[in-house]
Amino acid sequence: MTRTKVGISIQGTSIYLDDRTVVLSEAIARKWKVPSNQSMTLRFGSAKQDVKVVTAATSNSLRFNPVLATKIGIHQGAQLNIHYRQNVGTLSIGPLIGVMISRVYSSSYDRPFGAITAFCKEMTDACERYGAVVCFFPPGEMQANASSISAYAYANGSWSKKTFPIPNVIYNRLTSRKYENLPNVQQFLKDAKSRYGTEVFNEKYLNKTEVFEALRKDSSLHGYLPESYLFKNYQMLKSMASRHPVLFLKPITGSLGKGIIRIRREPGDVYTCHYTNLTGVRKQTFPSLSAVFQAISGKLKTQRYQLQQGLDLITTDGRSIDFRSLVQRGAKGEWGITSIVGRIAGSQHFVSNLARGGSLTNVVGALAKTPFSSATRVSVTARLRKASIDIAKGIEAQIPSHFGELGIDLAVDKMGKVWLLEVNSKPSKDDNTPLNTEKKIRPSVKQLVQYAKFLAKI
User: Rounded CA gap, 224 and 390, in Å?
Assistant: First the structure.
């Protein structure tokens, strides 16, 4: 496989440069054995065009006629990998990476994609470094039977809308199941995969029931799984309460700690219930479990809940600690850990999400706040890392969808045992690493681009 990086230059028609000819640097053509004055297929994303390659004494460039550039959706100034396959006579440039985003605020010049604008710019910078092009598009641009897409790209200091071919790789960053399940979105993805061989990763949201049922199929993962079921009836609640002093009811499609109910059995067989809401946590006490059920049964009918065993977790100053592991596939397509951060619950909360007043620290800092010995801290850190990879591989093996990154929420009990809390297939780009104050490209963003390059084979 032969590759190198070239700068794309679009110039007016000349005797060398018509809409069927490209001009490639002599040194690159010689290095990668690209034949001169021979017909071959040029590929960019889903676009294909028969061209003739002419060589010239220029430095690391590939020159296009404007008509040809428009036809295949290539734009001035891109820095792309070039890859010549001699056996099939194909010169591929790219990869072209598409990112599905929820919405565009066209009236906002500085933040056209809202809170993820900075991440989109960071993706653009990473693509420039690694020889790729990235474009961003909302659900309204995705149509059935499309051979191109209108998408946003950053160039010369601003965002603008351009026409691109269907990307080699599509990364799903849609932030709602409603958008993800729109018929036009589903059909667009189906067509892109079947017609153009596009690789789509993080294809869908995971829900809590799906994750626990899938991982339960692998006996090697049972040690990480608290007892957990899709809630069905009072009998199930009563049975779980007989085994565990603390239970959690979590909306199966919830995020940011919203809607979680904690039920705790107190001395004298009374029960306290804690509910997360917009302002904090509400607490109620009940004389019996049946009274708890009566009080919450209306809420339990509004959506589906996962019933989960409560754990005796490590704490600091009475606030619970858990861990978010960002696990990604990289340049070789293998799972690796990009970061693990400790999350400490806010003083009025029992969940650690930043949206609920939680704070971030590193693993060493989080474990230093516990009574564990230094040797135990080292072994817990190793167990957190092992659990992260084991669970990512379990998701890959048991759930028939393609994921390139997962946010895996883990907890550690007071005995040092590691437990799985949940798996998030749309990890926030601000939740898994400390704020990007140095304006560098974060490792998590580099990994996304490296994995897309691996998938595209360019």
Answer: 10
